[in-house]
Amino acid sequence: MSSLLKGSTSRLLSYIKLNWIKKSTYRNCSFLACRGYIEEALEQAKSNDIDFVPYRIRGYVLGNKFSNANVDIEQYLEDVDGCVRDPSSVTKMELENGNVFTSSLKFSALYHKAFESLERKYKNEENKLEFINDEILQFAIESFVREHHERCLRSVLETNEERKITVLLANHLFSRLVATTPGNTYFITNDHFKKFELCPCADQCGDKIWYGNSGIGSELLWYGKPDIMVFPLGGSCSIVLPKEKKKEMYIDEEKRLIEVKKESKLLRGHTNVSQFVSQTVTFSFYQKGFQLRKPESFPQIVTMIPTIAISDKCFDVYMYDTENDILLRNDGDPIPLWNNLDNPCDATLNMGAVLQLWMLINHLSVQPNLSPLELEKFSLTCGFASSLTHERLSRIEKEVTMRTKFLDHEIKEIKAPKSSFKRKLINSNNQHQSCQ
Ligand SMILES: [Zn+2]
Fold first, then answer.
1. Measuring CA to CA, which residue among 243, 286, 247 is closest to residue 267?
2. What is residue 208's DSSP assignment?
3. CA of 202 to the centre of ligand 1 (A)
4. Which of 25, 106, 149, 435 to pair with 192, CA 20 to 30 A apart?
5. Which residues form a coiled coil (predicted)?
């Protein structure tokens, strides 16, 4: 037994050593060598710009796990009289006449500082903004030396196993989009039974897979464990995968069974959306508290905080701003991660989407922000923070942390006494007494 353990430990060490040599090789690639890839990514990100539209939280129950959260959202629509409209009440004529409308916001506008700084860096111009330093640009070296990671990541297209997809996305996509710092650049939640010790990609890269406690939140709001936590310089980003990956079977004309994966529908299912929104709002409160506790590192607070909801083929971006009570999601279908999906063996990563993911992950460094005009348009459209008392919001801001345990919400039933009971009047004026 001990020799078996020894064998496995030495194999693991040799894998780590081999992997370290690989990483060092990539680090030695210069920024100049990646300029072509960056140019391509910038062009693709601009030609496939993401439109964000505001969402309103119509109903919610607080105090649950993300996975049990019940949050009802609908697109925020307004009519010419300035009234908020339920999408189901809007007639075709109202839409055609422009009597009901919503505002949208471009990804490139929200992240204009990041685009500007990256373009200056790429053109070798003076970079006054200094948002994109060489360490953050590690992504260019790691992610754009893409032949290796792209090939490894293609393994996600050959499996339906959620755990395997999580590991492959964490190791060959997200961990490559953050600067290499001492310690882990990511970890996968440790609450699953099945753990891959080494990366399960078809290339057998030998990378060790990192697990940890990703618990975040508060019983006053929502809480749970994001599937992946990524740690860019000076911060973190939360990533979630849709659950209950369903396959639908169709019979074609030749009576052959064809498996159709409805990725888009899965990302937009009510249970998954509830989970994504509760996690997005909670993570945004967490990031606000995190920045406020380190004023020397964050003189300017970033309030628009993203959460990425991703499957093996596409992703959605949810963003919540706690200060201005704004919830955004990409308009239309989920954003494709791959090109040429008709033939998975030849599928290539959509580098514009990879660049957008890099900006989302590094949000505390590259600082997405809304212009005063956009703030005026979108402020308070979510209606969540404004539905809570100031005291409750203050308590939430203080109590949303990363921790290992949360008190699970349980519905308790109290048995009624057999004898009849009398409602106790609180005082002669029939005033209600606060239960707190
Ligand atoms: Zn691998």
1. 243
2. B
3. 7
4. 149
5. 115-142
Quote the radius of gyration of the chain (alpha carbons, Å): 24
Q: In angstroms, what is the span from residue 111 Cα to ligand 1's centroid?
A: 31
Give residues with Cβ within 8 angstroms of 433, minimum separation 6. 426
- pLDDT-based confidence at residue 69 (cuts at 50, 70, 90): very high
Q: Could you tell me the distance, in angstroms and rounded to a whole number, from the CA of residue 171 to the centre of ligand 1?
A: 7
Tokens of 259: 């498996």
Centroid of ligand 1 to alpha carbon of 387 (angstroms)? 46
Centroid of ligand 1 to alpha carbon of 188 (angstroms)? 15
What token pair was written down for 147? 């032949």
Do residues 124 and 137 lie in contact, with contact meaning Cβ atoms separated by under 8 Å?
Answer: no
Distance 397 CA to ligand 1 centre (A): 38
* Virtual torsion, Cα 124, 128, 129, 134, nearest 10 deg: 50
Centroid of ligand 1 to alpha carbon of 120 (angstroms): 33
pTM of the model: 0.83
With the CA atoms of 3, 6, 10 and 11 taken in that order, what torsion angle do they form, in degrees rounded to the nearest 10?
60
DSSP letter assigned to residue 209: P
Distance 223 CA to ligand 1 centre (A): 31
Query: How far does the centroid of ligand 1 lie from the alpha carbon of residue 361, in Å?
Result: 21
Most distant pair of Cα atoms in the chain: their distance? 83
3-class secondary-structure state, position 257 = strand
Could you tell me the distance, in angstroms and rounded to a whole number, from the CA of residue 55 to the centre of ligand 1? Answer: 37
Q: What is the pLDDT of residue 435?
A: 32
Contacts of 245 (CB under 8 A, 6+ apart): 160, 162, 261, 266, 311
How many angstroms is it from 309 CA to the middle of ligand 1?
21
The answer to whether 318 and 306 are in contact (CB under 8 A) is yes
Of 360, 362, 267, 346, the residue nearest 313 (C-alpha): 267
Asked whether 307 and 276 are in contact (CB, 8 A), the reply is yes
Q: 205 CA distance to ligand 1 centroid (A)?
A: 4
207 CA to centre of ligand 1 in angstroms: 6
| Ligand 1 centre distance from Cα of residue 431 (Å) | 65
Per-residue pLDDT of 1-59, as tens digits, reads 444 444 444 544 444 444 444 444 444 455 666 677 778 888 999 999 999 999 999 99
Identify the H or E element spanning 6.
helix 2-27
E strands in 221-294: 222-224, 228-230, 237-240, 247-251, 257-261
CA of 204 to the centre of ligand 1 (A): 6
